[in-house]
Amino acid sequence: xxxxxxxxxxxxxxxxxxxxxxxxGAYTFASIxxxxxxxxxxxxxxxxxxxxxxxxxxxxxxxxxxxxxADWLTISRxxxxxxxxxxxxxxxxxxxxxxxxxxLFGHDDWKAGNVSTGEAVLTFVGFGVLLVGGWLGGAIxxxxxxxxxxxxxxxxxxxxxxxxxxxxEAAEGx
Length: 174
Fold this sequence. Notes:
Helices cover 74% and strands 2% of the residues.
């Protein structure tokens, strides 16, 4: 077993993509909660949910970024994949900064059960930038095929198993 599997995941089972689901989901929920608060659909509860979701997402961002960085280090510099992955990383770090600022400036309003206009704008800008980062992440997987093994005839149980198999290791070039 390679040490890189601890931070990058096994062949066919990378760690970065499932962590992005947690991060994107929490930021999406935070954006919806902010919208619920500023439109008056739900007031105090939505503001509390907004800030709490931002905190969960910011913690998840650290883990997601670390695993993404580990994958990024394996890409040949200067290639179209590297440029796309770099843009993906920069977009997502930028989104994280907007969300982080929203959480930082929103702490007092969170206590009061309110999302101010400025914090909502930071949240929505962060979400828009996050969508761009996600789009670029999709290109990394679905256009360039990074970490995709392509074992179309692998039996379902072996394909889904989070276990290292010789076929998976060979397909990833290990």
